Amino acid sequence: MSQQPAADGSGQATRKLTIVMAQMDFLVGDIPGNTQLVIDAVRKAEQEHNADLVVFPELCLTGYPPEDLLLRPSLDLRINEALDALRQADLSAACVIGAPVRHGGLLYNSALVIDGGETVATYCKQFPPNYQVFDEKRYFAAGTDTCVLDLRGVPVGLTVCEDLWSDGPAEQAAAAGARLLININASPYDIGKQARRKALLEGKARKNTMGIMYVNLVGGQDELVFDGGSLVYDHSGELAVEAPQFGEGLYPVEFVYDRHCQPVSQPPLPEPSLEENIYRALVLGVRDYVNKNGFRSVVMGLSGGIDSALTLAIAVDALGADRVHAVMMPFRYTSSMSLEDAEAEAETLGVRYDVFSIEPLYDAFMATLAAPFEGTTPDTTEENLQARLRGVLLMSLSNKFGSLVLTTGNKSELAVGYSTLYGDMAGGFDALKDVPKTMVFRLAWYRNSIGPCIPERVITRPPSAELAPDQKDEDSLPGYDVLDQILNLYVERDFSAEAIVAEGFDRADVERAVRLVDINEYKRRQAPIGVRITERGFGKDRRYPITNAWKPGL
């Protein structure tokens, strides 16, 4: 606990303060359960770390994002009951929690400080974000007031998430005398996000000559993954403490306060590779989606290709081999290599593995369709039927045994519609939905570096859907090394077709890719959700009308 004022060598009064960053995974909507998690965490922080203060993430009582649950009539009653429970919990440490709080008929995204059985401070978020995956202005009013309170003799300011990314709140807290700014967050992961956070905090701390504690949520919520990675910077802009990404924990930080609130530095964490970072996000996203939605197991099609091989590895790492069922559903175009590789993958990872031929099912369908199809030439209809038969088998296993179907499509395929509606798109969750094909290859090599589980020839051979003789993806698409660059510019960075051509890409490739993206919006709207890892995934980030006459070009 904090010590009484003492004199250092210069006669300046000093205090010591222990603040615990509660980087935790909360379940959206489970307000009583989340409240108990907070109480249990504070008690543990008191016992194990002698905490003065325990800081929790943004909207921890509701989980994030609660979306239209915030519009439910009983919200205020449930939050008030939770706050009463926290005040009556007989906690010796103070705590900072996030909750929706109503004032004057308006709802605010708030940070509250509970200390000694009382709510001693409430701060209302000043900048509710309304971009990318955020639509907080649908629910929350904007606060206007600065909050700086005396915490065990230390002037501490409060802000919430986006406030730190905007000009004003941090500067106001510093001007009001804060020597430490506590910023509570529900900041979702995307590639490069942690580096951007660090640059932001370094600049804000140095500019305001004020320490900053940044406490972030961890866990998966539908398509979002919150990666934790909580941070503490000192008043000179130096990184003092970094919590691990993608894991829960209580992380204590010691502060010494005289003229500045100086955190005691901890050894830096090793820098993860990009592939490790993404892979851990995918594993966490799958684990939380399956577990939080109460599925006992998952079932998936294993084709012998790289997408399903990587998805299988992610599923096993997320859930354990005993909760994963892989099914190979061969047809006359399925190569012996694919059969061998799928079996090897399943055996290496120790999952249940079944082989169900779709040949008799296909023949039965074609016999039924013989009359209406008479006089027509085989085309993608017959190819899509193969995929749809596989989807029916997987969904039947899902219904019978309560397993979630994992689909295996990657971002490149979904972008250009290289997938079959009600076929390989049938399922509940897609781990690779926001992973470009070129990154799929990199992740496969990364996973094999941990422990070999994907045969090398699965990674190195040309990708194929195997829906027709000698079929290869690049027969109908530009090479993925080119396609993914075009898609990045068009989907994630909003370049026009002409602007992409100006970057040096072949006009025919660009126009074809852009057209395929545009006309396949209807497919993506019906696709399962999946883990978001880029700054703009196919989900809440990108909301284009299905029916539109916008002409690609400028």
Automatic annotation (TrEMBL):
Regions crossing the membrane: none
Major enzyme class: ligase
Keywords carried by this UniProt record: ATP-binding, Ligase, NAD, Nucleotide-binding
Binding, ATP: 301-308, 408
Keyword Cell wall biogenesis/degradation: no
Catalytic activity annotation: deamido-NAD(+) + L-glutamine + ATP + H2O = L-glutamate + AMP + diphosphate + NAD(+) + H(+)
Binding site residues for deamido-NAD(+): 384, 413, 523
This protein's pathway: Cofactor biosynthesis; NAD(+) biosynthesis; NAD(+) from deamido-NAD(+) (L-Gln route): step 1/1
Ligand binding (L-glutamine): 131, 187, 193
Taxonomy, superkingdom: Bacteria
Pfam families membership: CN_hydrolase, NAD_synthase
Stretch forming the signal peptide: none
Active site, UniProt feature: 58 (proton acceptor), 125 (for glutaminase activity), 161 (nucleophile)
Record's function text: Catalyzes the ATP-dependent amidation of deamido-NAD to form NAD. Uses L-glutamine as a nitrogen source.
Family according to the record: Belongs to the NAD synthetase family. In the C-terminal section; belongs to the NAD synthetase family.
Designated name of the protein: Glutamine-dependent NAD(+) synthetase
Naturally occurring in which organism (per UniProt): Marinobacter zhanjiangensis
